[in-house]
Design a protein that fits this description.
Length: about 725
């Protein structure tokens, strides 16, 4: 076999070394000069093709395999030479036919050379291409369609072949073009609508449009609404779903009907009933909720409704615009009856969706008011009945929010023990299957908010079970997630400082990490806002530091409060100037620029203001911050945003209402501890802060979460560090 292979290669090398070896066996004298010129053109194109990928022009170097390259070279030489000979020796060719086919052969070669140069195709396809041309040539000579050749070969070969002038009059040309368009659609399934936009007359357009309508109804709706060739074509298709989408796309306010597409398609609702609800915001919101619950029930039965995401997004938008924005705007209204009047007619299920879908916008006090009304309107007020009523839609988010707002214990008290245990089992399972850490962080946060020891034991048991399962299946991500949760949950103080990989110990912030390395001082940045409460909070801050240990330097837009004894500390705080004129925002910006100009990088940042200002503070966080105090209501909900900018920061935040008295106490003990040259030992400091607080203030203080109890933040830091070490 080896000798035969060597002999074969030797013969091929002879062919390559002596090109005339395989030239047609006919006399050049018998060929008219003009046809001889065509033959010369073919020979030159052969040579150009062989060296299109470089080399000395003896071997077609299309691949890294020399044997394959030799075979392809032989095909290019022998098959093209045979074609030339066939044209000259076949008596069935007329003189005109010979000119046509010789020109066509050269056209076939030059087109392929261009395709290779522009990387439209690869050289490995040359054999298929030449064979396809030979088959098409035979069919064309017999006046037969070349559709079978186009169908059997790759898209690129078909496209190059159809460019050849010899096939431009083929009786199957239209069908061939349609085949290539279909192949193009198969090759680019995400661009089918774009492709059909310029080929609306293909016979398979209706079928592909129907498939596209099911595959991506929302995108299809956008195309159906446009008055162009494709839009008209879509609106002519008789498929029931396409007709429904087309109808919605062409009626006024079609986007308000579109979320109900699945119900309309299955004749579960009518256009008229939606129209009737659209005239009243409350009716429309209630219809959205009812449909969301119906869809959630179908999902639990493994039946996925079309465009449920569109329905949910519309439900979210409508809830925020109609209810949450108004409740938030009345946050200073003392009468709850006035503030929450807008939601008087909503059912517990409808209130539930206000919470879970309005998470990003709802204020702490707004959430607490809505949560309270959910169970006031339930008889009996059972948590499991609520989850059943909403088909467990977004139940993990509801648990997460209840944990974050310190209402989780109340929630669990409203269901029997077995129900609570099953719920938490489901809550903990399958964290490795998600694409983000959100669910795992929710589990860590929730654990810290549960006081019921039996529920905690269930979570610990379920975490251990999932850890073993992931070890068994060798799921690296799952092992890391559940191992971290297991370490966090199985410690008396909530933090396994010896087993977690953290950038810094979470229970202590060392003084040396807060000191500027060159100036040997601590710089603190504090944000104030210019609403009617901002002035009072700012004045309380100034009064608190009016003693011999501190001195104040007053600037037009900010103040600088510096220690006079002990460790050098400077607090930079913008003045709460008029927010209506954006003067507070300007003061913050100018202060930041001033600090940057002096190369000052604060290591402690304090937010003083309502929860609706937190995003503005976080947007301005310096990455140098090592300690962040969010002194507003619900600051705890912004942990992920803080850690995105300051990955290793120790965060102090409230789960519910931020209180000025608590914030001042925190700032005092932090600054005084540092001024005395001590590390921030959070467990010790927390006990000291708690001592002596009045009962009403202590109740608010209990809602504040110290860094060493901030399990969600701890989990994120530990996970990131673990992934870094395992790279």
């Amino acid at each position: 076999m080896l000798r035969m292979k060597k002999l074969y290669l030797f013969i091929l090398l002879l062919v390559i070394a002596f090109p005339n070896f395989a030239q047609p066996v006919f006399s050049q004298d018998d060929i008219p000069p003009m046809r001889r010129l065509h033959h010369d053109n073919i020979d030159r194109s052969q040579a150009q093709l062989i060296k299109v990928y470089g080399g000395d022009g003896k071997i077609f170097k299309a691949t890294s395999d020399d044997d394959v390259n030799l075979q392809l070279t032989h095909i290019i030489i022998s098959k093209i030479d045979n074609l030339q000979q066939q044209v000259e020796k076949d008596s069935s060719f007329s003189e005109n036919d010979k000119y046509i086919w010789l020109r066509s052969i050269n056209d076939m070669l030059t087109s392929y050379i261009s395709a290779c140069k522009y990387k439209y195709t690869t050289g490995i396809t040359v054999a298929d291409y030449i064979n396809a041309y030979i088959q098409a040539m035979q069919l064309q000579r017999n006046n037969l369609p070349i559709t079978s050749v186009i169908q059997q070969n790759e898209l690129e070969i078909g496209n190059i072949l159809l460019q050849n002038f010899a096939f431009q009059q083929n009786i199957g040309l239209t069908d061939c073009k349609n085949i290539l368009i279909f192949k193009l659609c198969q090759r680019n399934p995400d661009k089918i609508l774009t492709i059909l936009g310029t080929h609306t007359d293909v016979p398979f357009a209706d079928s592909l449009l129907t498939i596209e309508a099911f595959k991506n109804p929302e995108r299809f709706y956008n195309y159906a609404a446009v008055n162009n060739a494709l839009g008209y074509k879509i609106r002519s298709v008789q498929s029931p779903l396409v007709k429904t989408i087309s109808q919605l796309a062409t009626i006024p306010s079609g986007r308000f009907y579109f979320p109900f597409l699945d119900e309309l398609y299955h004749n579960q609702i009518t256009i008229d009933s939606i129209t009737s609800a659209m005239s009243d915001d409350e009716k429309y919101y209630k219809l959205l909720v009812a449909t969301e619950i119906k869809y959630a029930a179908r999902i639990r039965q493994a039946d996925t409704p079309m465009i449920m995401n569109v329905l949910t997004e519309k439900l979210k938008t409508k809830g925020i615009e109609t209810y949450i924005n108004e409740i938030n705007a009345l946050h200073e209204e003392k009468s709850d009856a006035v503030r929450f009047k807008k939601i008087d007619n909503l059912t517990p299920a409808e209130l539930y969706f206000l919470c879970v879908l309005g998470e990003e916008e709802i204020y702490t006090s707004s959430y607490l008011g809505v949560y309270k009304r959910i169970f006031e309107r339930m008889k009996p007020a059972r948590a499991d009945s609520l989850l059943n009523a909403v088909q467990f839609d977004y139940y993990k988010k509801f648990i997460r929010m209840a944990a974050a707002y310190n209402t989780l214990d109340d929630f669990f008290k409203r269901m029997d023990k077995l129900g609570a245990e099953k719920l938490m089992q489901s809550f903990v399972d399958g964290l490795e299957k998600t694409s983000t850490l959100e669910d795992a962080v929710d589990v860590a946060d929730s654990y810290a908010s549960i006081s019921d020891s039996s529920v905690k034991k269930i979570m610990i048991k379920e975490v251990w079970h999932n850890l073993q399962q992931n070890i068994k299946t060798k799921n690296k991500r799952g092992i890391i997630i559940y191992n971290l949760l297991n370490s966090i949950f199985n410690t008396t103080d909530g933090i396994a400082t010896n087993t977690l990989q953290l950038p810094t110990p979470i229970n202590i912030m060392p003084l040396k990490l807060l000191l500027d390395s060159t100036k040997k001082k601590i710089e603190i940045l504090q944000f104030f806002y210019g609403d009617k409460d901002g002035g009072n909070v700012f004045n309380a801050f100034i009064n608190n530091f009016s003693n011999a240990n501190w001195r104040k330097v007053d600037k037009p837009e900010w103040v600088e409060v510096s220690s006079t004894k002990g460790i050098p500390i400077t607090i930079y705080a913008n003045k709460p100037l008029d927010e209506l004129k954006d003067l507070d925002t300007k003061a913050q910006k100018d202060l930041q620029e001033y600090l940057d100009s002096l190369n000052i990088h604060p290591t402690i940042v304090i937010h003083r203001g309502h929860s609706y200002y937190v995003k503005q503070t976080i947007a301005q966080l310096p990455s140098s911050a090592k300690v962040v105090l969010l002194g507003s209501c619900g600051g705890y909900h912004s942990l992920n945003d803080v850690l995105a900018t300051c990955p290793g920061a120790h965060i102090i935040a409230s789960k519910q209402v931020g209180t000025g008295a608590v914030n001042i106490r925190l700032i005092n003990i932090i600054t005084e501890t540092l001024r005395q040259g001590k590390d921030l030992n959070w467990p010790v400091m927390w006990k000291n802060i708690e001592t002596g607080l009045k009962a009403d203030v202590k109740e608010r203080f209990d809602d504040y979460v110290p860094p060493h109890k901030n399990l969600g933040a701890v989990f994120i830091m530990a996970y990131n560090q673990e992934m870094l070490l395992n790279k």
